[in-house]
Structures
1.
Amino acid sequence: MTVVPPRHDRAVGADPRATVPRTDALLDGAAAVAALPVLGRSRVKQIIGEIQARVRAGDLDIDAVDDELRTQFSDGLIRMRRVLNCTGVLVHTNLGRAPLSPAALSAISTAAGTCDVELDLD
C-alpha cells in the first residue's frame, strides 16, 4: 500500500511535511496490520507517531515513511519457534535455555497471578 503520492504529483514548492500520512491510513497499512497482534495497538501507534514527528521535523523524507515503518515494526517482531535440541548439550547458547521443570512452571504460573508475596496468611 502506497500512502504517499509520488514526488511529481506534489505542487512545486509545497512543503512535503504538510503531506504526512494520517495515522489511520498508516494503521491500515500492511506493515502495521502484521505488527498489531505482536506489538499491540498502543506500541504500533507510538511507532507511527514517532515516524510522523521525524517527517514533520524534516529528519525523515516523506518518501521513506513506508520503508521506515517496515523497519521499525520488524525490529519489534521477535519470532521464536520450538526446536528439537539434538546437540547433546542441555543448555546451548543458540537454542534457548534449559527447559523448566513442571514444578518451576507451576510456581511461575502461581506467581504471575495474585498471590501472597509479602503477606503471612497464617
2.
Amino acid sequence: ITGNTLRYKRYFDDFPVFPINNFWSEQLSEQNKDYVVQTGNEVIQRCLLMSTDPGDLVLDPTSGSGTTAYVAEQWGRRWIAIDTSRVAMALARARIMGARYPFYILKDSKDGQQKEAELTRTAASTAPVQNDIRHGFVYERVPHITLKSIANNAEIDVLYDAHQPKVLAALAELNKTLRHHKTPYKVIDGGRAGKEIKFNAKEGETFTMPSGEVVKAYELVEWEVPREIPADWPQQAHKPHADFWKARIERQKEIDASIAAKAEYEYLYDKPYTDNKKVRVAGPFTVESITPHRTLISDEKGNFAEPQSDAVPEVDFVQMVLEYAKTSGVQQAHKEDKITFDFLKPWPGELVCAEGAYTETETGQTKKAAIFIGPEFGTVSRADLAEATREAAEAGFHVLISFAFSYDAHSTELNK
C-alpha cells in the first residue's frame, strides 16, 4: 500500500465503538422535580430528536409541569400542551417563561452560511436567507472517511506539496546536527526497522529500501524521526527536532481537515452549533381555557350524548362575567385597592360592552369605568387593548377595566 492510503490507514484503527441499548437511564439521573410525575428532560429530548424536525408541531395531551413544551421550545419545535390541572399549567407557564435557552445557529441564516462554509472548506453561499427554522440548524458532524474519499481528494496532494519544503528543511537541519554523532540510532519504523543508522558513516554510503528507494545510510528519512528525542542526542539537535515535528503536525492538521471536509458526514442532530453571544428565551405563547363547568355527557362506550330538550339553557358568556364582576368586584394587588361596583350595566359599544361606577377609597371620588371583556376561548392582544382604550376615552370614561383569561406578550408594552 502506498501514497495517501498508507498515510491515513490509521483513521480506520482509531474509531471508537459505542454500544446502543434500549435501557433509558436518563430518567433515573434527574431527581430535582417540581411536579410529582415530572419526566426527565433527557427522556423527552431523546424522543423529540428521533421523531421530529425543527418547526414541527408537538402535542402533549397530558403535559403536567410542561417538560415536553420546555424541551420542544429549546429545540425549535412548535408545541401544544394540555392538562386538566390549573396547578400543572401554572407550573408549566412559569417554567417556560423563566427559561433561558442556547441560541442554535440557523442553517437558513447568514451566520449559518458562514459556519457551513467554514466546516466544508468551501465558499460561503450567497443565496438569500429567510431565517426559516424549518431548514434546521447547523449541526456538528462526524466524517465518514473511506479509502475512496481519500483517494478522490485531490486537495491532499496540493497541501502536501505546500508544506513539504518546510518539513524537508527541518529534516535536513536535524541530519546536519547529527552528522558527527557517534552513537548509532536503531530505527523503529519503516524499511530500516530494527537496523542501526551510523550518523558518522562515510560520505556517499547508501541503503536500499525494500521498495527499491535508495537513501543515504547516515541520514534519517522523514518517517524514521522519533516522536520523542533520544536522551543521548546532542543538545543542538533539540531545536531542529522540534521544528521538524511542528512542521509535520501543521501539515497533518491541514490534510486531516481537508479529509474531514471532503468526506461524507454523519450529522449529530443533538449537537447544533450555538452562538454564545446571544441569549434566547421562549417565544410568545398563550394559555387558554375551556370553561370547566361546561361538560358533555358520554355513555359507557365513550359516545357523547345529544343534549336533552329540557337541559339547562346555556348562559351568555358576557352576562356571566358581568354577573361575577358585579358580585365579586375586581381584586387588585393590594386588598385596599379592591374595586366594588356601585352599578354595572350593558353599554352599546364595539369593544366596550358595559359601563360601571365605583368609589375610590382614598379620595371618595366616583369613577366611571368602561368594561372590556375578551373572548371566551382566546387571548387579548395589545391591539385590542389599544382600540378599547381609545373607544373608552372618546366616550368619556375615566378608566378601562379589561377582563380576559390571558393576554399576549406584547400587552405589557401598553403603558401609556
3.
Amino acid sequence: MPSPWRALFDIPRDVAYLSAASYSPLPRVTVEAGRAAMSNKAQPWLLPAGFIEQQNETVRAGAAKLINADQSDVALVSSIGYGVATMAKVLPVPRGSRVLVLGDDHSSPVLEWHARAGEQGFAVETVAMPADHDWTRAVLSAIERAGAPPLAVASISSVHWSDGALLDMMPVAAAMKQAGAALVVDATQGVGVTPVDVKALDPDALIFPTYKWLLGPYGRAFLYVAKRRQNGVPLEQTAHGRRDVRAENSHYLKDLAFVPDARRYDMGERDHFVSMPMTAASLDLINSIGPATIAAHTRALTMRLAEAVKDLPVSLTPERHRSPHILSLGFPKGTPPELGAALAKHGVHGAVRLGRLRFAPHIYNDATDIDRAAAVLRTIMADIGG
C-alpha cells in the first residue's frame, strides 16, 4: 500500500530513500515556504511590524508541542553541539567528578566534555557498547557503579545514531536523579518519530535538530532547558537574551538582566528570514500527523525489512532494543566497502555507519521501497559474495 504522505514530497517512484537518519528530504510545503521567505528577504521593507518575533515564537511553540514542553522552556539554537556547549557552561561539574557518555556516540553530545575535562578536572567515562545492544542496562550499571567518582552529568543520545538502539530514558532519568546528577539528552534520532514528554522525563536539557526526522532545513535546532537550569549564563551574549536592550530605546543598554526563561539561551542571529518559516512549515506537518502515527508507520516498514532479510548473512539489533524507525544490518566481515554505492546505483539509499548498513524510513516511504531495498540488497550481496 502506498504511503498516504509520499505525494507531499518530490521523490520519484524509482527512488527508495531510506536515510532520514542522515538527512530528510524537504516536503513540498517547506520548499514553498523557503521560496516565499527568500522573497521576504529580498524586500524586507514589506514585512509587517512584529514579523520576526511572531515567526520565532511560532517555531518555538511548534517545537514545544512535539515534546510536551512549555513554550518558554525552549531555546532556539543552531545545532546539538551548540546546545551541549550551552549546558556545559551552565551545569556544575566539580573537580574529581565524572561525566557519562555512550561508546561511539555521535560527536555532538560527547566532544564538549572531552574539551573541558582537563581544565575543569573531571573525567569523561565512556559506557562501552554492549554486545546485546541493551544500552539501558549498560548505562544504569555505569550510573550505579560501586566505588566510582561522584557522577555530575550524563550526556547521552536517546537513540544510538549508528545502529538505532533505543534507550529507555525513564529509568535512566530516575537513576540520575537518585545520584544527584544532571541529564543532558541528545534526542536527534528520536523527537518527531517517537513520543517524547519532557514533563514526564524531566531531563535537565533535551536537544534536537530539524534536518532529520523533523523534515526541516539544516542549521536549526531546539534546546529544552528545565526551569531549574534557566538561571545560567548563555553561550552567547545577545540583546534578545536581556530584559531591555533595544534599538528603539533612547538608551540602548537599558536593562542588562537576563530574560527569566529559556529564551536567554537563544542563539545569536536567530532571526533567519529563510530557515525559520521553513522550519515552521515542517513542524506543522509533523505535529499534524503526530509522532505516534509516524512511529507506527516506520515500525511496520522496519519490521517488513527485517523479515525480508532474515535469511541473509546479516545481524540485526534485537527487536526489543531497537527504535521503530531505524534498522541496522551488521555483516560477518564488516560492511563491504562498495555496498553503499552499489545500492545507490539501483535507487536505494541507506547509510554505512560504524561498519553497519543503516536503513531509516520516514513517512514518505512505503512497502514498495522496502521490498525494492531488500531485493537489491539480496542481488548485490550475491554478486559480491557478501
